[in-house]
Amino acid sequence: MEIANGLEPYMDHRLLIERLNEPMLFEFKATPAEWNAGLDCAIERGWLVLHESGTYARFTQAGMDLFA
Q1: Are 14 and 56 a contacting pair, CB within 8 Å?
Q2: What pLDDT score was predicted for residue 41?
Q3: Parallel, antiparallel, or unpaired: how do β-strands 56-59 and 48-50 relate?
Q4: 27 CB contacts (<8 Å, ≥6 apart)?
Q5: What gap in Å lies between CA 50 and CA 11, rounded to an integer?
């Protein structure tokens, strides 16, 4: 969530998944399974909504409130 919060949103407040991948996998050295578990957790907790295409996510109000 901290990585997502630090990203510059793309049009319509989209968080491009490819922009989340790079820091998670290369900077923080997460495995793909860890990265997927983190994304799933954020979705389950209602902080992010993943678009059906899987190419971007958006913060929900609950997700935005974490950083307010």
Answers
A1: yes
A2: 95
A3: antiparallel
A4: none
A5: 15
